[in-house]
Each structure stands twice: as C-alpha cells, then as structure tokens.
C-alpha cells in the first residue's frame, strides 16, 4: 500500500515566526513575546470558533488576534502597520529541512498532502512561493467543513480527500493539538519538535514518532 502522509503547514512546513523580523523593527526586544502571544491568540480564536460553530477564514482569526494583542500590549501599531504584518503571512519561508524531507519522502513512494486551517487558496499560494507546492497531490483545507483542527470532522474530511484508511494515514505536525486530534480520530502521527522548548501535552496519547526534522522523518518512517 502506498503510504499516505498529510502535513500541517503553519509551523510544520512553513515558519510563521519569520514575522518577528518585521516586528523586531517595530518593537525591538518585545518582538518575540508579541509574536508568541499573537500566535497563541490566533489558535485560541480558531478553537473558540470551532466550538461555537462560528467559522470564519483563518486569516480573520489571525487579524483579530493581532488587534487584540496590539491593544492588550499597548504597542500602538496603526492600521497600515497591522495590514503590512498580515501581508507578511503570505510570504513566510519554508523551514530549511522542508524541501529536502518532502523530496525524500516523495522518492520513497509516499503520497503527500498539505492539510491546513488556512484557506485552500492562501495555502496553495504560500506553498508555491516557498517552493513546496509541487510535492503535494492536493492542498486539503478545513474551509470545506467550516471548522478547525482539532475537530474530528476535519480529520474525517481529510480521509475522504485522501481516500485512505485512518490507520494507514499519517498526520505530520509540529502542533501537539493537531497530533492529538489526529490520534483521537484514529490516524497515525508524527510530531515534529521544532524547538527544544516545545512540550507535548500529557494526555496519555503519544505520537507514533517524534522527530526534529522532515529529513529525520524520511529516515525513520516505518515501511
């Protein structure tokens, strides 16, 4: 059976922390803390909207999270600056190992899918500018389901798009909530630990694999 591997995009293939380059010019030493709070609030808003059944495009979660952190941190970023920071999300770079790891996995015969909370159009354009688009059979977006990871319905939709059984499908993500959502839905999982500070939630569900890069994943993935 041809292996089916599905990849989270933001934080796994693509480095959203690159936004701190712009923030550093605006906020100096506050930049990293501002980014981390923005990213946490972005995900929190997606979780809330998923639970409420109040879906919006993921970019709206990102925009509203930026407005909240700007107000709560009293950083005074004006509307034009906030727009420029939002635009930066469409120009994020791939992690250094992404292309090499995907190429190796593709050469090993795996079917590769991108799977994201972002819209299909936004994610497709992001992967194209980062040089990763050609590795994937398809970009699968939660927008069709009108919910967000880690809702079970989005993983069910993923399986319908890949035409693969849960126990034969791998979800590869740096986000523990995504790995846990996939495990809960019966998929196999690989956690990409992108930072030494990253911690996996102690829920009694562990990823099938823990790796530091996609190149390591290609080496360690079971046949």
From TrEMBL:
It catalyses: an (S)-2-haloacid + H2O = a (2R)-2-hydroxycarboxylate + a halide anion + H(+). It comes from the Bacteria. InterPro entries: 2-HAD (IPR006328), HAD-like_sf (IPR036412), HAD-SF_hydro_IA (IPR006439), HAD_sf (IPR023214), PGP-like_dom2 (IPR023198), S-2-haloacid_dehalogenase (IPR051540). Keywords: Hydrolase. The keyword Protease does not apply. Coiled coil: none annotated. It holds the Pfam family Hydrolase. Its EC number is 3.8.1.2. It is an enzyme of class 3 (hydrolase). Belongs to the HAD-like hydrolase superfamily. S-2-haloalkanoic acid dehalogenase family. Catalyzes the hydrolytic dehalogenation of small (S)-2-haloalkanoic acids to yield the corresponding (R)-2-hydroxyalkanoic acids. This is (S)-2-haloacid dehalogenase.
